[in-house]
Write a structure and sequence with these properties.
CATH superfamily of the largest domain: Aldolase class I
Radius of gyration: 27 Å
Number of domains: 3
CATH class of the largest domain: Alpha Beta
Helix content: 25-40%
Length: about 650
């Protein structure tokens, strides 16, 4: 078992002391309105601080210093004194539990959206944004002075609101980064030119903040260790920027990577854990004494400890790890790493919600942004609960109900619980889904749920167990579409491929280009099959969240999967698939045809039990796919909510 010697060491960041070496970086939570943090925002951060121990430093944000820098209507405001009292509520509640808290100063620049800020976005130069599709205008020198003054004023408000430090984001393609990069800074005045002159804007903001808040007030800078944009900063240029930050008096450099426009994945599931620690390591070599934090895909304490032990960074940043489990550090310190609910980087509730301007949620933790109203309390009366189906929704309902004091039996008709969660972890780059199933299985065991495998629920079983409540979580079955020739032996189902039930020939056509079709295609291509995915819609992957879709398409293409869109399958023959494309029929040769065209609810159990006459006086709830098509985040949330109602 790992001994966490370094993780729980204290460290000085300027005049601020962190009680451990874990930083919770700023994340756009989408829980503010008109600049004011909502109750859910404050509850969320207080619960992380109160987890005992919480992070050594929590950073919130981004907080906009002026309206034209606002990223979205649900960001936090620091452009007016009216926000100070509400932010003081937040800092007081975090300080109550001994944690430190900082505010990130954020300006989107050309990443801001015109209709949100009410004017044309601004930047170093008039270079269009591929992220928003908008053309910014270049700031004049007078306007640059205004922006810098607004940053300084926002830092003063943060100090007055009780924040222990501020962070200036110079990363991710936002405004400061736009001045740093030769891709977006084509200026011919003193703010443009070589790297030294492109750092002028950043240097002056740092100086303005330090002058306004006092030299003793800590300032952190968030830096892209590499922009991962052709023609922009690599690690070598970022080292130069880091050294300048240190000379300018910055107290901590937090190292991330990439822009929103980059095609190099940063935080999705297919990125190996700790993949970008090397960036922090490189920055650390370029500075003399300022501490450096490593970021991105650090989701467990063992990895964090190893980074510190190997002297690759001074601090580790764990963001979504605290969304998934506020008590991650307490469980590590108590020697209970198996109880940690790890972030699986699915992005379903965090980044997908950010891009949809919705509050952040979490697949693994259905209490996020609802901490106050979803406290898990003991049940008023103990009941016998039968959960039919061991997929993610059923497992969540079972363990939470047992935790509340109910007598719970979970019946799964296959030889292992997990449902579609087991299949989701099989395609390349999707292995983190196995962590979801592992955690839920562990909770079933910890909470004493009786698990009966290879056991379908029948009227006879209900009569035997005499439950007060039946939770139906029977999932879904794959659809076999009414296509001519679909009954041929060469036609198989995608789930059966992933489950290892059937094998394929060398040449495969996958019918259906959604998540299941693409991931099954990648799975087969990685195993040497020649794969073509056929999709009747104009684009493959439409059922995949916006923050992840491009990476799954990218991985499929890298593995050699051909994607044929706007193509309708007419029939299946001995030679392969006859499809209509642009009004012309063509034969796609195939030894095996894989169906991945969706699923339908498996809800026959309700009728079976009703017909069996065994449901009198028994409450029935449905969760997950048996109630309709669901993603894991929705199934787990429903299972959790049902468990609270029982």
């Amino acid at each position: 078992m790992t001994e966490f010697k370094r993780l729980f060491e204290s460290i000085e960041v300027g005049t601020m002391r962190m009680d451990n070496r874990v930083l919770m970086p700023a994340m756009h939570m989408g829980m503010a309105r008109d600049g004011f943090p909502g109750d859910g925002f404050i509850d969320f951060y207080e619960e992380r601080a109160a987890a005992g121990p919480g992070p050594g430093l929590i950073i919130i944000g981004g907080c906009y210093p002026e309206k034209r820098g606002m990223g979205a209507p649900n960001f936090v405001g620091l452009d007016d004194d009216k926000f100070i009292p509400r932010l003081k509520e937040l800092t007081d509640r975090v300080h109550r539990h001994g944690s430190r808290i900082a505010a990130q100063l954020y300006h989107g620049g050309r990443y801001s959206i015109g209709y949100v800020i009410g004017e044309q976005p601004v930047s170093a130069s008039a270079i269009p944004s591929r992220f928003t599709g908008e053309m910014p205008r270049a700031l004049s020198e007078d306007e640059i002075g205004e922006v810098q003054a607004n940053f300084a004023a926002a830092a003063v408000r943060a100090r007055e609101a009780g924040f222990d430090a501020t962070e200036l984001i110079c990363a991710a393609g936002y405004l400061v980064n736009q001045f740093l990069s030769p891709l977006t800074n084509k200026r011919e005045d003193r703010y443009g030119g070589d790297i030294y002159h492109r750092m002028t804007f950043m240097r002056e903001i740092i100086a303005a903040i330090k002058e306004a808040t006092g030299e003793e007030y800590p300032l952190i800078c968030r830096l892209s260790g590499s922009d991962f944009m052709e023609g922009s900063h690599t690690l070598e240029e970022s080292k130069v920027v880091a050294a300048e930050m240190e000379r300018s008096g910055v107290d901590l450099i937090s190292v991330t990577g990439g822009w929103h426009e980059t095609r190099v994945p940063q935080i999705t599931m297919n990125v190996p854990r700790g993949a970008y620690v090397y960036l922090a390591e490189g920055i650390r070599d370029a500075v003399e004494s300022v501490p450096v934090a490593a970021c991105n895909r650090i989701n467990n304490p063992e990895l964090a400890e190893s980074i510190l032990e190997e002297d690759r960074a001074d601090i580790v940043a764990m963001g979504r790890a605290f969304i998934a489990d506020p008590g991650i550090l307490r469980k590590a310190r108590e020697g209970r790493p198996e109880d940690i609910r790890h972030c699986i980087a699915c992005n379903q509730g965090c980044f997908d919600h950010v891009f949809l301007l919705q509050p952040v949620a979490c697949t693994m933790n259905p209490r996020v942004n609802r901490e106050r109203e979803t406290e898990v309390l003991p049940a008023e009366s103990k009941k016998k609960v039968l959960v039919a189906g061991g997929g993610p929704g059923g497992m969540e309902a079972a363990w939470v109900a047992a935790h509340r004091g109910h007598d719970v039996t979970l019946c799964e008709e296959s030889e292992r619980p997990g449902g579609q969660g087991l299949l989701a972890a099989i395609p390349p780059g999707r292995e983190e889904w196995a962590e979801m199933t592992r955690y839920l299985e562990h909770q079933l065991d910890t909470e004493g749920v009786v698990v009966r495998l290879n056991t379908p629920v029948t009227p006879e079983l209900v009569e035997e167990l005499e439950p007060d409540v039946v939770v139906m979580a029977t999932g879904a079955r794959q659809i076999t579409p009414p296509i001519e020739g679909v009954e041929k032996d060469k036609v198989v189902l995608a789930w059966d491929i992933l489950a290892g039930i059937v094998e394929t020939g060398d040449t495969v056509v996958v019918v259906g280009g959604g998540a299941v079709g693409l991931e099954t295609g990648s799975y087969l291509a990685e195993r040497g099959r020649d794969v073509t995915v056929v999709e009747m819609l104009e684009e493959c992957g439409r059922d995949i969240g916006v923050s992840t879709r491009w990476t799954i398409l990218q991985d499929a293409a890298r593995l050699g999967v051909r994607m044929v869109e706007s193509c309708r399958v007419e029939r299946i023959t001995a030679e392969g698939v006859v499809a209509d494309r642009d009004g012309k029929q063509e034969l796609l040769e195939a030894d095996t045809v894989v169906m991945a065209v969706g699923s339908r609810p498996e809800n026959g159990l309700e009728e079976l039990l009703s017909a069996g006459g065994v449901m009198d006086g028994i409450e029935l709830f449905k969760v997950g796919d048996c109630a309709g098509a669901r993603k894991a985040i929705e199934a787990i949330r429903e299972g959790f909510e049902v468990a609270l109602r029982i």
